[in-house]
Amino acid sequence: MEIKSYLKSKRQIVEKALQKYMLPASEPFKEHIEAMHYSLFAGGKRIRPILCLAAAASVNNDPEIESTLLPVACALECIHTYSLIHDDLPSMDNDDLRRGKATSHTLFGEAGALLAGDSLLTWAFDLLSQTGNTSLPPEKRVAIINVIARAAGPMGMVGGQTMDIANENREFPIEILQTIHRNKTGALITGSIQAGAIGAGASTNKIEKLVIYGNKIGLSFQIVDDLLNATATTQQLGKAAGSDTTRGKATYPAFFGIEETRRQALQAVEDAKSALTDFDYKADPLRALADYIYTRSN
Amino acid sequence: MEIKSYLKSKRQIVEKALQKYMLPASEPFKEHIEAMHYSLFAGGKRIRPILCLAAAASVNNDPEIESTLLPVACALECIHTYSLIHDDLPSMDNDDLRRGKATSHTLFGEAGALLAGDSLLTWAFDLLSQTGNTSLPPEKRVAIINVIARAAGPMGMVGGQTMDIANENREFPIEILQTIHRNKTGALITGSIQAGAIGAGASTNKIEKLVIYGNKIGLSFQIVDDLLNATATTQQLGKAAGSDTTRGKATYPAFFGIEETRRQALQAVEDAKSALTDFDYKADPLRALADYIYTRSN
Predict the structure, then answer these.
(1) Which residues of chain B fall below pLDDT 50?
(2) What is the value of pTM for the model shown?
(3) Which terminus has fewer CB within 10 Å in chain B: N or C?
(4) In chain B, residues 136-155 whose CB comes closer than 8 Å to chain A
């Protein structure tokens, strides 16, 4: 399993699909839609769409399954992008740099960025429900919409974000940090995998295993984010390095030190792969993605 | 048709449904969900949910149709509430008062209000897709989700809001003001009516007529908002009176004067009722709602 070429090829497929399924920037709201495009096409890793497609492929080798799920994959990236735009706002993390580029509000103003985020979130649900963009039957669509809304909402990603903001510059136990990570980052990662699995017709048992896999790689992903924030340079990251410390955010390295944090990230990756024991070769991309999440450098 | 008692009884039904379908404020995100509740239960008129239910009843006299559509009605109110929270933010209209109460960001901070809005929008789509909260079949659910997402998104409500913000303190032609009104206010009003009609199994022809009705009452609604902003007191409105002038916002009265503006609002109401010519007594609430929108005082 050559993960780099796998990621490259899947990224190209996702980029092309985003171009296809994204609203074109036309009047009367051209500038607004351009602001949506700016962040959506700012060079994301497309991890969530790829996880969605890889989860689908792990249970279903129908060659059509990927194209059937591309609108779902694109919707996930729209939601992830909206969350980054809102996180970067002055009233939130106040970041000027993201993926090596100026953040939305530095270019479009606070109101422009806020509304670009609102529209990306809403457009995600438009894509998930548009007539004719997929052969997914309505009952699967509704189930996927619910999994994604639940993962992205008050008991998932946004909930985690509120707790992250509320606990800046405060001492709190490791359990709070784990709740933040599980929701702010983990929920949409697991939701992406669940959405792909539902779309591909996975059994309840397989979905349960994939949820464990998702929770574990989500944890690993966020621990590695903490590590990179503490150890990499701004140039390597494409966003402000060391910002967690500056902002008084609790992180895994602050609790456990660098070495023990690395060990825990690796353990989470091993746990993720163990959850896939009953899966055959079709889950090899998921296994390789788990390793990649641990070894990535930005 | 006694519109006041009709509105009162429907409002009670909607309030009860909102209590039922809203996420309870429980840990670990209790404070966040309480911020969602604060704005959702701050005394809204519930016009959009009521229009959704009235549109459904205008084409279908099954006594079950109302309860079937209550989750949809509640989702519409969640979306409307999120839009008000974001509109009131300091980077947008910077309003301290809404419905006679402190706005979300004055109580929960900018980040808290922003995220409460994000969660209300996402929760709307959760409600629209939850298993078991309605007997609406999946194909109708997907169609309703798409109508609502389209109305609320970049080519609807949010698009209109971007144009409103972009044109503050600027001279522009009446066509721009009409585009702002049609999208910022009109799109979700028409979307609410369409959602109800689809849920009730209206024919394509009936849906087309209801869309015309919706567009016309949406226009009248916004023109009356402009009039009230110019002529009523802050106490009557429950929000800052005269703020359009202070902010350099174009309005119907600024273009046409008070009298001609009143005439146009009334004309829109008449056009709305004309669109319902082919509808029987079951559309009487819609007819009365059109009159109410013209005569309301806040």
Answers:
(1) none
(2) 0.96
(3) N
(4) 137-139, 141-143, 145-146, 149-150, 152-155
